[in-house]
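Field log, afternoon session.

UNIT: design team B
ACTIVITY: writing a sequence onto a fixed backbone
BACKBONE:
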């Protein structure tokens, strides 16, 4: 929506947006952030199954948290590009401005401030399409301040007014992407970028309830490969195919799961995957450190101790803790942010309605599980330490499943409990990464797929490294920047 909206600001550019979902703007399961979980496992959610038996959800259905990663994490993006691409601005300074461009931030009102909400004006935009603020129903009980003070006392981590300035290693109360002008409705991409202009922009057509089945090429077998358009179909398992012709560019924005599937169906991907399916490989992209795989793996393994020492100085946030207050219960949701385990997405059929194989490889690197064990131990200490402990009568989960002891539970007990009960928080990235081709990259700094003339990717799949944040603010920033790059190329 972001790219389509920005490009259609130019009346000489025509935009067709093919959208798999319905127009659900009037559905409370979408616009009510307190009810969003009701949409899980419905037709409004992809609910992709994984090889591990878990499910990855993909849509605008989320908790609406508006956070940003560590400034150094964005700066690292440029180091993965060619030297002559550094000036494109894929770094903290460049991304910070585009993330702010996407938002109109409303500072906490007196009621929200009394409950602990704070902000720093320079960290936020004031004229963007996405509305960001704190909810009117923001929780204000004693648990809120007790959680903050316990974290500070127990860990030494600072309490920051606002974590959106590139320094998220802190405890802070975070804003949400919601519109207080409309009774705290979710400020989704469609509400932010389409609704205000849909009756005015005759050069922008949105085709809902259809999926792209593959990209069509005008010069198959040639380099650079040029897209002539896309083939698409109705969103139910329809055998009828339609064609949309592209005069300028094809921009793929189907997300970190569906984008690599579309590319593979179009002949872009690993020839070892495409060949057995009878798909002619147009561009052979391995996406796993390219031809230098063994060399890069050896370099990573040989530098783990140096990396660990550098992180001890940088204080890069590895974990996210969220306090939960439901009825009379106090709880903590937590997950690893910077995981080592890596997975892949591969099609196994030429049928575009068949979900791809998704191999996430949860905890395939032992360090990820070690960090998760340390995090759950810390959560137990948080709830049992003052002042938060004064509001608790004792632990019920995990309780006896992980008997307490001087360690706050054995490694074995925590590992068993975690493996039996964990779930994804649905933040996949990096399946069409923006980095050098020899590192396994799929797109360059202009977000153009290698060896193509007019195909770009603009979604979470281009983000090359995990961030210490929710993805929303970052992805709006990526899309805003992409729109300017595309405009400049016309």
């Amino acid at each position: 929506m972001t790219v389509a909206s920005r490009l259609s600001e130019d009346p000489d550019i025509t935009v067709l947006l093919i959208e798999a979902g319905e127009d659900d703007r009037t559905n409370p399961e979408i616009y009510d952030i307190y009810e969003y979980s009701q949409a899980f496992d419905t037709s409004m959610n992809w609910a992709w199954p994984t090889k591990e038996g878990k499910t990855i959800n993909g849509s605008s259905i989320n908790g609406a948290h508006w956070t940003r990663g560590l400034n150094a994490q964005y700066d690292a993006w440029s180091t993965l590009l060619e030297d002559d691409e550094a000036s494109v601005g894929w770094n903290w300074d460049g991304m910070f401005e585009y993330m702010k461009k996407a938002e109109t931030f409303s500072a906490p009102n007196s009621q929200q401030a009394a409950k602990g909400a704070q902000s720093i004006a320079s960290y936020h935009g004031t004229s963007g399409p996405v509305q960001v603020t704190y909810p009117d129903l923001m929780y204000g009980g004693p648990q809120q301040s007790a959680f903050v003070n316990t974290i500070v006392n127990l860990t030494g981590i600072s309490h920051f007014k606002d974590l959106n300035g590139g320094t998220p290693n802190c405890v802070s109360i975070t804003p949400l992407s919601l519109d207080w002008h409309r009774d705290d409705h979710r400020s989704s991409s469609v509400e932010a970028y389409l609704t205000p202009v849909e009756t005015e922009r005759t050069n922008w057509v949105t085709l809902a309830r259809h999926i792209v089945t593959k990209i069509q090429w005008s010069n198959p077998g040639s380099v650079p490969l040029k897209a002539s358009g896309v083939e698409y179909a109705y969103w139910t398992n329809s055998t009828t195919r339609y064609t949309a012709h592209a005069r300028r560019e094809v921009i793929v924005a189907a997300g970190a799961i569906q984008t690599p599937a579309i590319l593979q169906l179009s002949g872009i991907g690993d020839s070892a995957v495409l060949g057995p399916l009878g798909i002619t490989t147009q561009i052979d992209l391995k996406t796993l450190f390219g031809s230098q795989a063994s060399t890069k793996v050896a370099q990573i393994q040989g530098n783990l101790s140096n990396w660990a020492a550098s992180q001890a100085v940088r204080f890069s946030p590895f974990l996210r803790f969220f306090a939960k207050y439901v009825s009379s219960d106090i709880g903590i949701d937590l997950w690893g942010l910077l995981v080592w385990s890596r997975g892949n997405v591969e099609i196994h059929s030429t049928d575009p309605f068949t979900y791809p194989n998704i191999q996430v490889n949860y905890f395939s690197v032992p360090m990820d599980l070690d960090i998760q064990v340390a995090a759950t131990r810390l959560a137990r200490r948080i709830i049992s330490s003052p002042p938060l402990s004064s509001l608790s009568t004792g632990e019920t989960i995990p309780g006896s499943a992980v008997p307490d002891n001087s360690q706050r539970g054995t490694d074995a007990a925590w590992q068993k409990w975690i493996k039996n009960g964990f779930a994804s928080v649905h933040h996949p990235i990096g399946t069409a990464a923006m980095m050098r081709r020899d590192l396994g990259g799929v797109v360059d700094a202009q977000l153009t797929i290698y060896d193509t003339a007019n195909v770009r990717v603009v979604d979470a799949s281009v983000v090359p490294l995990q961030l210490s944040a929710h993805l929303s603010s970052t992805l709006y920033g990526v899309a805003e920047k992409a729109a300017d790059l595309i405009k400049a190329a016309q």
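LOG NOTE: Residues 292-421 form one domain.
NEXT ACTIVITY: expression trials, pending approval
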